[in-house]
Design a protein that fits this description.
The chain is an all-alpha fold. The protein has 14 helices and no strands. It is 71% helix and 0% strand. It is globular.
C-alpha cells in the first residue's frame, strides 16, 4: 500500500482516538454526578437510534437468531460487561491510568487466542506478554502502600472482557450477521442498566442528558474515522495509533480534571506500549493472514456506545467475511 495511504490512515486513526478519548472524558464528567450504570444506560439508549440507522443498511436476510448461540451469548455478555466496567473505571480513576490498564488488552488477546483460535505463540511473544504484564504491575504498584481500588479492578476486568469480545468475534468470523452481533449486546445492556436504575438513580439535568447524547455521537464518529483509517492504511501501521490515547488523556486530565501523570504510570505505560508494539510487529511479520488476532481486533476497547468498527464496516460495505 502506498505511503500516502498509510499517512492518511494514521491521520484518520489519530482523529478517531481523539473522538474516543473525548467520549471517555465525557463519561468521566458525568460520572462525577451520576452512577456509572445510569450514565451507561442513557448514553446507550441515545445511541440506539443512531446505530439503528446504520443497521437498516443491512441487506442480508435473516433474523436475530444466532447460528452459534453459545459464542454469541458469551460475546454479548462480555461486551456488556466491558461497558459496565469501563464506564465505572473512567468515572473513578484518572483517565491516563485507565488507558494504561486497558492497553493490556492486546496482550490478553494474544493469550486468549491460544485456546479459542488455536493460535501458536512463540517465545518472543511470550516474552512480550510477560513484559506487558510487568508494565501493568508497575502501574498498579501492589505492596507499595497505594490502595488498589474497585476502579483498578474494573479497568482490569474491562480489558479482559474486551479482549474476549475481540477473540470471540474473530472466531465467529462471517458465520453471524452483523445485526446479530450488534443488537444482542445493545438490548442486553439496556435491560441490565435499566434494571440498575431501580437501585440508584439521580434525576438528570437537561445539559447532562445532552452530554449523554454526545457520548453516543462521539462513539459513532470514532468508529467511522477508524473505518476510514483501516481502508486507507495498513493494519500494522494504523493499529499502534491506539496508544495516542495516552496523549489525549494527559491533555484532558491536566486541563479538565486536574490530573497529573506520576512516574509509575508513565513507566508502566512505556513498558506496555513497547510490548504491544512488538506483538503487532510480530503479527505483521508472519505471512499467514488467517491468524492475526491482535491486528484484526482493532485494539480499541469496545463498549455498547462504541461498538466494533469492523461490524459497522461489514454493514455499510456488505462485507460478510473476515473482519480484516
Amino acid at each position: 500500500m502506498a505511503a500516502s495511504g498509510n499517512i492518511r490512515g494514521i491521520g484518520f486513526a489519530l482523529l478517531s482516538m481523539g473522538a474516543f478519548a473525548t467520549h471517555d472524558a465525557v463519561i468521566k464528567t458525568l460520572g462525577a454526578y451520576y452512577p456509572s450504570l445510569q450514565v451507561l444506560f442513557f448514553s446507550s439508549l441515545l445511541s440506539f437510534p443512531l446505530i439503528s440507522m446504520i443497521l437498516v443498511q443491512e441487506r442480508t436476510p435473516g433474523t436475530l437468531r444466532a447460528n452459534r448461540p453459545a459464542w454469541v451469548a458469551l460475546r454479548s455478555v462480555c461486551a456488556m460487561m466491558a461497558g459496565v466496567f469501563g464506564f465505572y473505571a473512567f468515572s473513578v480513576l484518572p483517565l491516563a491510568q485507565v488507558y494504561v490498564i486497558l492497553f493490556s488488552a492486546p496482550l490478553l488477546i494474544t493469550i486468549l487466542s491460544i485456546p479459542l483460535l488455536g493460535e501458536k505463540v512463540g517465545i518472543h511473544r511470550w516474552l512480550a506478554i510477560g513484559l506487558g504484564l510487568i508494565g501493568v504491575l508497575i502501574v498498579l504498584r501492589p505492596g507499595s502502600g497505594q490502595a488498589l481500588s474497585l476502579g483498578h479492578l474494573a479497568a482490569l476486568l474491562a480489558a479482559c472482557c474486551s479482549a474476549t469480545v475481540a477473540v470471540v468475534t474473530r472466531k465467529l468470523g462471517g458465520t453471524e450477521r452483523p445485526l446479530v452481533l450488534l443488537m444482542w449486546p445493545m438490548l442486553g445492556n439496556l435491560l441490565v442498566t435499566g434494571a440498575g436504575l431501580t437501585i440508584a438513580y439521580v434525576p438528570m439535568q437537561l445539559p447532562h442528558l445532552g452530554l449523554a447524547g454526545m457520548i453516543a455521537v462521539l462513539g459513532l464518529i470514532g468508529n467511522f474515522l477508524m473505518i476510514m483509517a483501516y481502508r486507507a492504511g495498513e493494519a500494522a501501521i494504523v493499529a499502534p495509533m491506539q496508544y495516542s490515547q495516552i496523549i489525549w488523556a494527559s491533555v484532558y486530565g491536566w486541563f479538565i480534571f486536574s490530573e497529573r501523570l506520576d512516574a509509575a504510570t508513565v513507566t508502566g505505560a512505556g513498558v506496555i506500549i513497547i510490548s504491544g508494539l512488538y506483538i503487532v510487529w510480530r503479527e505483521r511479520s508472519r505471512g499467514d493472514d488467517s491468524q492475526r488476532p491482535v491486528l484484526s481486533s482493532r485494539l480499541r476497547t469496545e463498549t455498547v456506545t462504541a461498538p466494533r468498527s469492523t461490524l459497522i464496516q461489514r454493514v455499510l460495505f456488505n462485507r460478510s467475511g473476515s473482519s480484516h
